[in-house]
Amino acid sequence: MRxxxxxxxxGTKCLVMRDEAxxxxxxxEIVVRVRAASLNRRDTMILNGSYPLAPRQGxxxxxxxxxxxxxxxxxxxxxxxxxxxxxxYFARWIDGRINAGLIDQLGCTLDGMLAExxxxxxxWAVRLPDHLDWHQAATLxxxxxxxxxxxxxAEMPKPGQWVLVIGSGGVALFALQFAKLLxxxxxxxxxxxxxxDRLQALGADLVVSTADMPEWGAAVRxxxxxxxxxxxxxxxPTFAQSMIACALYGRIVLLTIQDAxxxxxxxxxxxxxxxxxxxxxxxxxxxxNLEAMLRAISVHRLxxxxxxxxAFDEANDAYRxxxxxxxxxxxxxxxxxxxxxxx
Length: 343
Known about the structure:
The protein is of the alpha/beta class. The protein folds into two domains: 2-142 and 284-334, Medium-chain alcohol dehydrogenases, catalytic domain (Quinone Oxidoreductase, Chain A, domain 1, Alpha-Beta Complex), CATH 3.90.180; 154-280, 3-Layer(aba) Sandwich (Rossmann fold), CATH 3.40.50. The chain is built from ten helices and 15 strands. It has helices at residues 41-48, 134-137, 140-152, 170-181, 196-201, 217-224, 239-245, 269-273, 287-300, 315-323; strands at 2-7, 14-19, 29-38, 64-72, 84-87, 117-121, 125-127, 162-166, 185-190, 206-209, 227-232, 246-254, 278-280, 306-310, 330-334. Helix 10 (315-323) links the parallel strand 14 and strand 15 (330-334). The longest helix has 14 residues, at 287-300. The model is unreliable at 338-343 (pLDDT under 50).
């Protein structure tokens, strides 16, 4: 089989394709024929050495991927050959609160999904909704679950309340879609005017161009009466305006405090003094969260948004494209595969 591995030292890692033996499962493992995988911001951070959790040397990257089970170990009870599955981001975190013993991540400390075959412990995987194609199914583990927990965690917004999303990356678009499932109204903020119509087509009730209105927070608050939940993926360039846009008792899920230039979120004193907004943090989510999200996706027939699909041997191009940052949805690597002739 072919797989990609991250090789090199911290800060100078590179993505290298290798030919390897097709894996066989241990008693509690499943072998997954990976059909597609997708990128998240953390994957580029791992590659450039800026991710807070050190990757294992030679690890197979990418937490997000989907495929069918082609072999199971003798003791496996959760899956059978032919099941469509994806992995859980924090593979060992099944439920409850996270702790130091549960921090292993697919594509970082554990081999991930950028390979023709992946080996997962049966506890690390979940079944996929039947209506999703492989590209869509490969986008859920990180961005999808992060957005799901941002929107549905404690103090879930009620129907009719306002949710604010930033940009058009995977988390933002998933958050928009999940908020609409809950009956919420959504404000979508983008620096690209050409994306505003596409955000409205996804269900955004109000779109704001930061190119035309850099100081947009007060206008959003005036038009909405105050945002009830902000899914803050912009970081330093947008945080102050997000806080200004918030209702008095609004909630901000702050997913990043730094930008690509090394800037850090600053809380403006006057804005903070007149706000009772709650600022919270989350770490993607556990397997039970993932299963709940997939049930909702299945019931509502939700389909993730795909920006661009790359062939398996174009994985390095996919990384470069993703790092440019001007995406609308998820960047996917297709693992299209044909039986090779025996030599």
